Amino acid sequence: MKKPSSGDRAAPKDVDEYLARVPEPARGTLNRVRAAIRSAVPPEATEVISYRMPTFRYKGPLLGFAAFPNHCGLYPMSPAVIEAFKNKLKNFPTSKGAIRFPVDKPLPAALVKKLVKARIAENERKKRR
Predict the structure, then answer these.
(1) Reduced to 3 states, what is the DSSP secondary structure of residue 91?
(2) CA torsion sign, 3 to 31 to 119 to 73?
(3) For residue 51, is it within any domain?
(4) How far is it, in rounded angstroms, from Cα 111 to Cα 85?
(5) How many domains does the chain have?
(6) Rounded distance, CA 55 to CA 75, Å?
């Protein structure tokens, strides 16, 4: 029997279970974001649930995404990457660790891929040190 974590439901065991719990239109939006990320990560990247959200790992945490009642979020896990892309992100609310976008309108796939590539480069530089 699974032990429930904080909140009233157990944490999802994988990304597919997480997405199955997300209502439309956010589910479709996150599926498009996930597809863009998958198309940009190396084949050895993995998908896990970390901090109760879908997270891609490649040489360490790469980025995560999640749905909330009024928005979706992409979490590049790097304030430097958000800062580097601030001009391309000017139409989206951002914070040090998050990029928010509407539940019914995913971030542009080309932008997601650029963010992923920047995070891969960051993680590869860290691993070389």
Answers:
(1) coil
(2) negative
(3) yes
(4) 9
(5) 1
(6) 9
Confidence at residue 82, expressed as pLDDT on a 0 to 100 scale: 97
Question: Checking phi first, is residue 55 left (phi over 0); if not, alpha (psi -120 to 50) or beta?
Answer: beta
| Domain contains 1 | no
Percent of the chain with pLDDT over 70: 93
Q: Which domain holds residue 71?
A: 15-128
Kindly state the tokens that stand for 88.
Answer: 């391309």
Distance CA 102, CA 91 (A): 11
Q: What is the pTM of this model?
A: 0.90
Rg (CA), the chain: 14
Question: Measuring CA to CA, which residue among 81, 104, 117, 115 is closest to residue 30?
Answer: 104
CA-based torsion, 19, 109, 55, 94: positive or negative: negative
Question: What is the tens place of the pLDDT at every residue in 71-123?
Answer: 999 999 999 999 999 999 999 999 999 999 999 999 999 999 999 999 999 99
d(C-alpha 23, C-alpha 82), whole Å: 27
Domain containing 69 — which CATH number? 3.90.1150.200
